[in-house]
Amino acid sequence: MLPLILAVAGTLKLAVLWQLHGHPLLQPRPGLDSAVYLDLARQVASGDLLAGTRVFFVSPFYIYFVALVLFVSGGSVTALQVVQVALGVLAVALVGRTARFWYGERGEWVAAGCATATGYLCFNDVLVLQSAVDPVLTALGLWLLLQAWTTGRWTTLLAAGAALGAHAINRPNVLAWAVTAVGLTLWIGLRPGSVVGGKPAGRRAAWSASALVAGLALVLTPVAIRNYVVAHELAVVSSHGGLNFYIGNNERADGAYRLVAGITPSIDGQMRDMRRVAEQATGHPLTDTEASSWFYGQAFSWIGGHPGTALRLLAKKVAFVFNAIDLPLNESYAYYATDESTLLRLLCVGPWLLLPLGVAGLWIARPKPDVGGMLRALWWPWVSFIPIYALGVAVFFVTGRYRLPLLVPLFVTSAGAVLTVWDRYRAREWKPFGVAVASIAVLGVATNANVGMDNGLSAWRAEMIVHDIGVRRDAEAQALLEKTEAGYPNRSLLLYRVGSAYLARGDAAQALPLFERAVSLAAGRPELELGLGRSLLGVGRAADALPHLQAAVQAEPRNADAQEARGLALAFQGRGTEAVAAMETACELDVRSATARLNLAILYAESGRLADARARAEESLRINPDYSRALEFLAALPPR
């Protein structure tokens, strides 16, 4: 039966890959994690085996995994996704074999079937993100630990340690579980009658734990050495832990990812800004690890000053981990499973079902007493991954991607819960049957409760609207806007984004009514006033545009775009001196603006300052050598 289930799993995963691999929102885009991983992997594949000269900011396992596949496949991202699909099938197989250990053949079928029918796994298989390999690394580590604890073979202990190490350098939240697993191995080795190592209890425990630690060190040590060699800093995995800890523990934290003042909300922005913000605060240069430590210090300072609030926040984050909602980061599963016509709509198993079944299964599906007590002795150490990993996520902040490894053991315990309920029903054991059903029902209500968080559906619809406008699919964009606007949490922001997309393609007439509606909802917002002013300028209504642009400049005097647009409006009104002053200010505020310099050149030329006009136009061309309007303007100027 398992081979058939795996064949179905592979077919479904490949079908989802075929349906989504060309989706415009899933293509690696500058600033997102996927683009950063691809860039680093290509760097490694092209010969830079150390991947730069800074401490790893992102988790290194996925960088080298991607690099290996790209090197072998000649740089094919599709090949990478196919390999990830294959690893996803392997994860299903390992889940099934682990469930067979606890519940026999029926458990294998149920657990593997649940994993196959979980759309969230199929979705992550096709992403260029480290979450694509989290399920197989989790399943492999947990399966190898069981084998190591029951057989005592040093090779299996070593392999289990290496698997835990690989998972830790892919998902650092696993480090707490890796350390705990060493302690659990010691405890199991000291247990009377344990088979681990075949030696007396004391030596057996020390020997088995040492083998596990050796496996961990085999993977973690090269990463630490690389970080020291390239950056002369001690870092076991990566340097982003302090910032992530601060994101989840500060006065504005709410349990999910939230913006940090001064930090660009992208991986490359975080890499750039983390040190800059910490250095500005301390007043002296910092290394990556020192900047991370500074953010840790800020978070711990807040926790120490607000212990009650911090504890309530931690409890809230734990509740998020065990809630059915998928908190998005980079990608919203809710969007692809709801709005796109893919198999994800049919693959309906997910946290909404696995959390109540799996958590209930921890107790109601625990193994019955067995000869020697081996199963009972290993059960709680093995399932302790669930609370320990959950806490490892909750101490930072919660997203669906970070929670993904938790689903792997929940497939197993969910299978146990299903079989327990079925067996109690068939045996007409009504009291334990009722207790089991009631516990699952109560947990179902708790884990599916509305916690007031956003699953990203509206935000990703907005992304699709902007994309459709960019490729001139206006009918589709308008239809999706009508579908999205009513339920969007911030309508003025949505209208601003859509209007800006029309302005970006040069269609002020389409943008104008959107900005008018946005300003009617949130008058005085400088970005909305600027957008409305630019739209009015674009349709030739400079007089109407000027008050809105004045308001934008008054609110944000250092906004170069607002100063430039105001300068244009003043010029169209025949107020040349004021226009020149505004445009000069725009050039001072944005030293990389080619358009502001050309507009200033035109204003200079109109006032007879030809030498200054030529100089500003030449500056514009140095910034943008392909700027055709600047070339035409220079060609039209009289000779020197």
Question: How confident overall, as mean pLDDT?
Answer: 92
The secondary-structure element order is HHHHHHHHHHHHHHHHHHHHHHHHHHHHHH
Beta content comes to under 5%
What's the N-to-C terminus distance?
A: 85 Å
Structural class, by secondary structure, is mainly alpha
Outline, from the CA principal axes?
elongated
By DSSP (H or I, 4+ residues per run), the number of helices equals: 30
Q: What's the gyration radius in Å?
A: 29 Å
> Mind summarizing the main beta sheet?
none
Number of distinct beta strands: 0
Helix content: over 70%
The stretches of 5 or more residues where confidence is low (pLDDT under 50) are none
Produce the secondary structure layout:
Blueprint: H1 2-20, H2 33-45, H3 60-73, H4 77-116, H5 119-125, H6 134-151, H7 154-168, H8 175-190, H9 201-231, H10 241-248, H11 267-282, H12 288-305, H13 307-321, H14 333-338, H15 351-364, H16 374-383, H17 385-394, H18 400-426, H19 430-447, H20 457-470, H21 474-485, H22 491-504, H23 508-521, H24 526-538, H25 542-555, H26 560-572, H27 576-589, H28 594-606, H29 610-623, H30 628-636
Provide an overview of this structure:
The chain contains 30 helices and no strands. It is an all-alpha fold and 640 residues long. The radius of gyration is 29 Å and the shape is elongated. The mean pLDDT is 92.
